[in-house]
Amino acid sequence: MRAKEKAKPVSRAALAGEADPRLVALSVSIQDDGALYAEDIRGSQAHVTMLAAQGIVPKAVARRIVAALDQVRAEFAAGKVRFDPALEDVHTHVERRLGELVGKDAGYLHAGRSRNDQVALDERLFIVAACDRCDAALERLQRAFLSQARAHEATILPGYTHLQRAQPVSLAHHLLAYVEMFGRDRERFAEVRRRAAISPLGSGALAGTTLKLDREAVAARLGLAGVTRNSLDAVSDRDSAIELSFACALAAVHLSRIGEELVLWTTKEFGFMTLDDAFATGSSLMPQKKNPDVGELARGRAGRALGDLVALLSIVKNLPLSYNRDLQEDKRPLLGGPDALVLTADAVAGAVETATFHADRMEEALGSGEALATDAAEYLVERGVPFREAHEAVGKAAAFATAQGRPMAKLTAPEWKGFHPRFEKDVLRVFDARKSLARRDLPGAPGPRQVRRELARWEKALGKRRS
Q1: What is the residue-wise DSSP string for 229-296?
Q2: pTM more than 0.85
Q3: Which residue in 257, 290, 382, 447 has the most C-beta neighbors within 10 A?
């Protein structure tokens, strides 16, 4: 391009005159898709290498282009590329700079390729790498929970339903619930990665090309598992972007749940744990306060993740085949989600692994028998009483104890006998939380033997720490 020439948007290359500045402002995407420069350049290098192998581009030219693209990548990374709104997107910025480095030979690069299949490839490469980053962060998070669970096998506390004290569990069992959640999240990211790792390059604008491309060679060079099978679908498909956003959103919701518990458990009302000072903040006004910001931010980030998912679904919901410019708007909700998840997961992992859990306060919260009311009902079931009848009898005992201002564990054997004739003196043995846990020995239950098995299973599953 001559120095005095004004860049013309690629999307208006066949049109007369210049675009209205208002349309240019609306069309520009470089502020968002500029983040895909590395993926764009990687795809271009694989594409031109294939073109040379197929005899479509001279091999010497292809080598020059590949080397020049390495320089362009370095310039992007160093922040040396000046964004020009007239060039609209990352693809055009890369090609413009390539032209400055290798001259008209840069024109070979776009043979057999459209910006439609190019951006579809860029996004898929981004999604594959994003899934790997999210998986690694979630593994670190699992390790933090697993470490604390191993340290607190013997710590007991109330399990909750409706945020009301329900039945005794171990802290290890409670923490392992989050390990399970994040394990499912990791499975989802693996599934997203598998479906995303397919190359759309060669689909052209919508109908492929007459050039004899080797699509499989490009996919292999990029580390992808294969190629898309329908060109119309390939350039307009954003399923992988939506799936990635969904996986991020659900993982963020799980982080929000532990964030809520970090907030609750660190209050003086609960007093179950204390955050390390490195993962809390003070008040600008009240010097006595220690705020659990890490938990609050984890809750807040979930809202953003849910918004990204809804945005992506809304963008594609009414689009006819094939490519439509609406899809340009997918970058902002897609690109920020994975990094936000990684940052949140790492912060929560740090907060959990450095936290102090207060076993005495947790055990104290079990109270004096109310959390073992179900055990009393099951005592009767073991003696042949239908559960509904047993439930009613224990409910009457609970109401009586409340009216008397006495804990259920302090009711006498004759009093229990009055609520049901099948109660005997040994019913008083029911009101021992540790013995109650020991009896809960079904797979998946919080009994100590089962918890030890789950700890060992997860320690084996996670294996050695990644380097």
Answers
A1: S-HHHHHH--HHHHHHHHHHHHHHHHHHHHHHHHHHHTSTTT--EE--GGG-B--SS-TT--B-HHHH
A2: yes
A3: 447
